[in-house]
Write a structure and sequence with these properties.
Blueprint (H helix, E strand, L loop, with lengths): L10 E2 L1 H27 L3 H28 L1 E2 L5 E2 L1 H22 L6 H24 L1 E2 L2 E5 L1 H24 L6 H27 L1 E5 L13 H52 L3 E5 L5 E4 L3 H5 L18 H13 L4 E9 L5 E11 L7 E8 L1 H29 L3 H16 L3 E7 L5 E8 L10 E2 L7 H8 L4 E3 L9 H9 L4 E9 L2 E10 L8 H90 L6 H29 L8 E3 L1 H11 L9 E5 L5 E3 L1 H17 L7 E9 L4 E7 L31 H11 L3 E6 L5 E6 L17 H6 L4 H12 L1
Helix pairs in contact: 1-2, 1-5, 1-6, 1-7, 2-3, 2-4, 2-6, 2-7, 3-4, 3-5, 4-5, 5-6, 10-11, 10-14, 11-14, 14-15, 16-17, 17-18
Length: 847
């Protein structure tokens, strides 16, 4: 008798446990396959069918694993099961499987969908398990360990998450490697589900009950029942799996057939719409298929192509035979060749032909040959080759022109290479004479044709100015046949006499003048001149013109060099003469300096003696001298003093040419104020008004410039002596390039017709009795100003005063000796220049 307070010990039938785990693994593998079927199902009915069938198969498999595991559980007392509750647990398993399949069959599954579905499926599996536990009927009370129950639920949720993630990622993988991955995943899922179940079984314990009423009890053989349920489950799972695999295979074959059908349609469309001709040649060299593209490409109907080489150009039959032989010897290998086919209109076109031996392919059973029209490409290649050759020729000639100055050699090489490039009989260069006749200066001609080199030719066409202007404007004459070009009969006769049948003429210009012609002749037959050939001759005519100009310039340079050498020799001779004259001038200066020294010593002593002795006579013997003799004595003394002043001024004037300039920045206003202060004694007992404007600074020798101001202001004070009120103005007029200083007075003035004598040494315009002076002061002013690179001039009217002007540097005024241009009246007015002043200066300088 079992103690009611003791927990009954339980054990499991190992065989049934293993069997339950196997069922779980098979059910998991089936679920992975069914997930893929639900995903690719098309239409609502098909989707519902696979979803419902998959849910039943998967749910029954999970429930079967659970119930077999329940049957493997043994207690020391009999166990019975409530059938309705057992069926409820099965329904729960089917519902959970349906939800799981629905989630994993979606196009996308995010983390939220995975988590929601996993929790729902885990809770459903847990509900199925504990519902199944509730179906147990036995004389015992069950007790559950809450911790283990919670662990079992978490395992159920975790197993569900793993199962759904694996099912989603492997649902569409139908490869062999994918099957292995599915099997591994099924093992993981099956063991996870089994772990949940056995954890839940470990959470329960049973204690005997004294009184337990069993509503219905059916004695069962657990092992046989488990095996029966397992076999039934395996049958259901096998049917589901076989159905899934069959449907998958059927879908793959259907898709392959559809792809093949689409491929055939696409191939047929490509063949019919492609620009290439596709031909299938049987082993007997008959054409079994020709694509419709033969009509637009060659102008034939497809059914007219019967033999392999029916339309091949006779000269290329050998190439076609060689291609076919090579294709027969090389199955399934592309072999290629290029040859020509005859068009229906008689033209010949170039083709690239690719042949592939597919005689072993039952779907083709022939040599698949593709013809691609490459006529335009070949023409482009020829044109490109000609273009390259033309550029090479032009470049070489241009380089030869840069490297050589031998014009004859350049022209001779040019016509030879042009004739070779054009493959024509004659090329020459024709140069015009002043009367518009001409001569062939260089030529390249085949031996079979008469040479024209050195021949003088006069074409009446060029006697007309309008005709020459056409060529001057760049006209190119391209004549394909002189007899059909609409030429005048005399011109035809002229060209025929020169053995010309086709003619290409390009002008050679020099400074927009017609120098000559570059001519290509085809003598044997008519010829069509291509645009590329015309462009070549035009480019070469430009290069020839450059060579001619370069040669002309070289000749000019040689002439100029000869003239320059002659001029250099003359300059050298002149320099030698200048050096000789400089030596003579230096000697003359030294003599002048010696003379000046002699004057300063030899003349001063007698003058001092005359002045001294005359002063003694006046001072000591005045009472003894008659009045008339005294007057004569005073005149002697005065003339001696005047002679001394002349000697001093003459020495000062000569020193100006020898003393070096010491230029520096001079404040002109301050310098004039200093001069006025020094000359205050000249203003004693007189009414003098002096107006001094602000003067700009300048670069000058301060000592020499002061001497200029002293002489000019002294003159102004002197010649205003008779004026009741002497007015003197010192100022400056600013021009755009120089400052013009002036000293203006209201004195006696002078007659402008004698102005040219004003700055000469010892030149005076007033009597010495009226105004003292030696006539050297203004000459000194001019010498100082000229040494500074400036100008000095004056303007005056008799009894209305005079104005003296000077500048300290070269300016804009006209200098006839230096070739400078004067400023126009309008420009002077715009720049604030006194135009009248400039004109008076020019008039003064012209005397």
């Amino acid at each position: 008798m079992i103690n009611a307070h003791l927990v009954m010990s339980a054990n499991h039938d190992v065989r049934l446990v293993s069997f339950s785990i196997l069922i779980a693994i098979i059910a998991s593998y089936t679920a992975l396959n069914l997930a893929g079927r639900v995903t690719v199902a098309q239409g609502l009915t098909q989707t519902f069918f696979w979803l419902a069938g998959g849910a039943i198969a998967m749910g029954v498999g999970i429930w079967s694993m659970h119930f077999i595991a329940m049957l493997a559980y043994n207690l020391p007392i009999p166990i019975a099961y409530n059938l309705p509750i057992v069926l409820v647990s099965m329904v729960v398993a089917v519902a959970a499987s349906g939800v799981a399949l629905f989630v994993v069959s979606r196009q996308q599954m995010g983390r939220l969908q995975l988590l929601t579905g996993g929790i729902f499926m885990g809770l459903s599996i847990a509900a199925m398990h504990y519902t199944g536990m509730a179906a147990m009927q036995l004389e015992a009370e069950s007790h559950y360990n809450p911790k283990l129950v919670a662990v079992s639920i978490l395992i159920a949720i975790g197993a569900s998450l793993i199962a759904m993630w694996l099912a989603f990622h492997f649902r569409s993988n139908t490869s062999i490697s994918g099957s292995f991955w599915k099997l591994g995943s099924a093992i993981i899922m099956g063991n996870a589900i089994a772990a949940m179940h056995y954890t839940g079984m470990a959470a329960v314990s049973f204690k005997p009950s004294k009184e337990l009423v069993i509503e219905q009890f059916y004695p069962l053989n657990n092992f046989l029942l488990a095996v029966g349920i397992g076999i039934a489950t395996l049958v259901i799972l096998a049917l589901a799996l076989v159905t899934s695999l069959f449907e998958q295979r059927l879908r793959i074959e259907t898709a392959r057939a559809e792809a093949l059908h689409q491929s055939e349609d696409r191939f047929r469309s490509l063949v019919q719409n492609a620009s290439d001709i596709v031909v299938v040649v049987a082993s007997d060299r008959n054409v079994s298929y020709a694509s419709p593209t033969i009509k637009p490409v060659l102008g034939y109907e497809p059914e007219t192509w019967n033999l392999a080489f029916e339309f091949v150009h006779p000269d290329d039959i050998a190439k076609a035979e060689s291609l076919l032989t090579l294709a027969l010897d090389s199955p399934s290998v592309n072999v290629a060749a290029e040859f020509r086919l005859r068009h229906a209109d008689g033209q010949v076109r170039d083709f690239e032909v690719i042949a592939n031996n597919l005689l072993s392919e039952s779907s083709v059973a022939g040599i698949l040959t593709t013809y691609r029209d490459i006529t335009e490409r070949k023409q482009a290649e020829v044109s490109l080759q000609q273009q390259t050759e033309r550029e090479r020729l032009v470049t070489e000639i241009a380089q030869r022109i840069r490297q050589s100055l031998n014009l004859e050699e350049i022209l001779r090489t040019t016509v030879a290479e042009v004739r070779q490039f054009l493959q024509t009989e004659r090329v020459f260069i024709y140069r015009f004479e002043p009367d518009w006749s001409g001569v062939v200066v260089v030529e390249s001609v085949l031996l079979a044709w008469s040479p024209l080199l050195g021949m003088k030719v006069k074409d009446s066409f060029f006697e007309e100015t309008s005709n020459r202007e056409l060529y001057t404007q760049g006209r190119v004459q391209a004549t394909e046949d002189i007899y059909t070009a609409g030429l005048s009969q005399c011109h035809i006769n002229f060209l025929a006499q020169l053995q010309v049948r086709a003619n290409l003429v390009v002008p050679i210009l020099q400074e927009q003048q017609l120098w000559g012609l570059l001519v290509a002749n085809h003598c044997s037959e008519p010829r069509h001149w291509q645009q590329l050939e015309i462009n070549l001759l035009k480019q070469l005519a430009t290069q020839v013109a450059i060579a001619i100009q370069q040669s002309t310039l070289f000749e000019q340079v040689q002439t100029e060099l000869t003239e320059r050498k002659r001029a250099e020799a003359e300059i050298k001779k002149l320099n030698q003469d200048l050096q000789r004259r400089a030596v003579e001038l230096e000697a003359a200066n030294k003599e002048l300096e010696a003379f000046s020294y002699s004057v300063s010593h030899d003349l001063r002593a007698p003058l001092r003696a005359i002045n001294g002795f005359s002063r003694i006579l006046v001072n000591e013997y005045a009472p003894q001298i008659a009045p008339e003799a005294g007057r004569y004595l005073q005149m002697v003394r005065h003339n001696a003093q005047q002679m001394g002043c002349l000697v001093d001024d003459l020495l000062a004037f000569s020193r100006l040419s020898r003393s070096p300039l010491n230029k520096q920045l001079v404040a002109s206003t301050d310098l004039v104020r200093q001069v006025l202060a020094d000359l205050e004694h000249e203003q004693e007992n007189r009414h003098v008004e002096i107006l001094l404007s602000e003067l700009p600074t300048c670069q000058a020798d301060p000592a020499l410039l002061k001497q200029v101001w002293v002489n000019l202001i002294t003159n102004a004070l002197k010649f205003t002596r008779l004026s009741e009120v002497a007015r003197i103005e010192v100022g400056c007029q600013q021009t755009h390039s120089a400052a013009i200083y002036f000293v203006k007075d209201n004195g006696v003035g002078f007659d402008m017709q004698y102005a040219h004598k004003l700055f000469g040494v010892f030149q005076r315009l007033h009597r010495a009795e009226d105004y003292e002076g030696t006539g050297v002061g203004l000459a000194i002013v001019q010498r100082v100003i000229h040494r500074h690179g400036g100008r000095v001039w004056a303007e005056a009217e008799i009894n209305k005063g005079a104005t003296f002007y000077f500048s300290l540097e070269e300016d804009i005024y006209n200098d006839r000796n230096c070739g400078r241009n004067s400023v126009s009246r309008g420009q002077s007015q715009r720049r604030g220049i006194d135009t009248a002043l400039l004109e008076k200066q020019q008039n003064y300088q012209s005397h």
